Amino acid sequence: MAFADLLIVFVYLLLITVVGVYFEKKASTGIDSYFLGNRKIPWWALGSSGMASNFDVSGTMINVALIYAFGTAGFFIEMRGGLVLIMAFLMVFMGKWTRRSNVMTLAEWMTFRFGKGVQGNTARIISAVSTLIITAAIVSYFAVGAGKFIGDVLEIPQFLGFSSEFWAAAIIIALTTIYTMAGGLYGVVWTDVIQGVIMFLMIIIVCVIAINSPALPDVFSISVPLNDGSFHSIQTTKESWTNLIPSWKLNFPENSTYSIYNLFGIALLFYLIKVIIEGSAGTGGYMAQRFFASRSDRDAGLLSLFWTFLLSFRWPFIAAIAILGIVYGVDSGDVIKDPEKVLPTVIFNILPTGLRGLLVAGLMAAAMSTFSSLINSGASYWVKDIYQEYINPKASDKKLIFHSRLSSLLIVISGLLLASNISSINEIWGWLTMGLGSGLIVPLLIRWYWWRMNGYGFAAGTATGMIAAILQKIFYPDSTEYLSFAIIIISSFAATVLTTLLTEPTDRETLINFYKTTRPFGFWKRISESVGSEKLSLIKKENQRDIISLFFAVPWQMVLFLCGMSVILKRTDLFIYLFILLIVLSVGLYYFWFRHLSSEVRIE
């Protein structure tokens, strides 16, 4: 990198660190301030922070790799997680359901749902421990991606037996940890807002460059990774690569790591089912934290809408980088071999000095915002759900803040150590989304919709799913995503339901309080009988609107993302059709959801 590029990156890092540390005093007044910003942060800032946290380097490198290798078909593969389709569910109803609990963490939520007795505490401990494990694993995933990217940028040598990627990740995580430990959620959110502005400058510049780049040739070559670690060049056409309507089958070589997607139609149906289950189950970690920190039902909806809208700009950027990677290969006669290296290759071979520094700063912003959100939300589970609740209930605010910062540091160290043994971003991402994360889906899903589920069932289902995912990774690392997901889901479901039926139900008063406060739909007839018929009618109307709205929200989110991509792909014909469809879906979403945001059914 030129001196001007390095100067831009240095100024950015200094600015972000200063902003994060600035909030140290405000964040240190107590753990409500440190982890929730005293629920005084505006919805637009929470939405901006959520977008920045989702715009990670690792995910961007994977998504660029998929678009580069598959064309627009790669977009649909990321229904497994990269499209963040859970946002449609959070926007319509899951966000407000989460906010209504008035708790700090998903683990604390367990006592709201299952009571503060043995079963509630059992579910709380299991939830806290599983979240800490997943947080460390996700930190390692992001560290691998950030390490690959920053390692190429700074050309860091191997040292003490660790790779350049490890040391690159260590540097970026260390800087992020400094301001996250100091500023808490205040620091995380407001640095995310600044980082979001930098990201948007980066997106606009790259998209303009891609639009003004030479048109793709009718036939060109891309490269795909093989199982033995080598790469294979294959030809594709401009028409098929830019086609937004996915084919039922693909034709990758059988020894390619992408050959699992050759039965493409089945894969998409599978991912769609996963999205519905996962979205209906709600969320945890830093995503749930944004809703716990929101001020009201209305703010929960608005921050979700803004979050989703901002995320839509990520996909034109991804498509632009993929196109520039192909153009570089055509112009140079040297196809980029590793799809996961397309992003850094474009930066160093196409962008001019100055713009290169801005893009690097923007991607470092993406990495740092994700790390900071993970670290801050993960630490809350140790402090709130384990240390304060079971080890030192009388701990002072000063002591709790100390443990907040200490646990942040330990999460970072654990994630880095895990990252040192991982080489492929797609490998760890696939396991996180289809393996480890799947261990939580069934208990998280059933808790909202079945009154009979109790804390023991949640604990058993979560523990079984997590253990199954870890054993699969150790003993059957080469099993397909579909098989892993199916085994983990079935195991977790069986443990959840059997344990629930073999143990006593949750206290009825706890269930009535949960139903009146949250007002979910599902199998709650025995509990909803305690609500007067007039109020129950209002709840049912709200539930019906939410269910109908969901059928607009999910396709609306996908069409919104595809609209931006079609512009970069220079497919005016497809853009017109998509834009008309987007308007129709937006009208439906407004009628059934948006205009009712200020309405809240209150039950005393």
How would you briefly describe this protein structure?
By secondary structure, the protein is mainly α. Helices cover about 75% and strands about 0% of the residues.
Describe the structure.
73% of the residues lie in helices and 2% in strands. With 604 residues, it is mostly helical. Among the domains are: 3-67 and 128-239 and 282-423; 547-604. It has a two-stranded antiparallel sheet with strand order 1-2. A hairpin with a 5-residue loop joins strand 1 and strand 2. 55% of the residues are buried.
Would you tell me the overall average pLDDT?
A: 85
Our Rg estimate from Cα atoms comes to 24 Å
Structural class computed from helices and strand pairing: mainly alpha
Fraction of residues in β-strands: under 5%
Q: Which H/E pattern describes the elements? A: HHHHHHHHHHEEHHHHHHHHHHHHHHHH
**Helical percentage:** over 70%
Main sheet makeup: 2 strands, antiparallel
N→C terminal distance: 62 Å
What global shape is seen?
globular
User: Main sheet: which strands, in order across?
Assistant: 1-2
Tally of individual helices:
26
Q: Kindly state the number of beta strands.
A: 2
Uncertain residue segments? none
What assembly state would you assign to the polypeptide chains in this entry? single chain
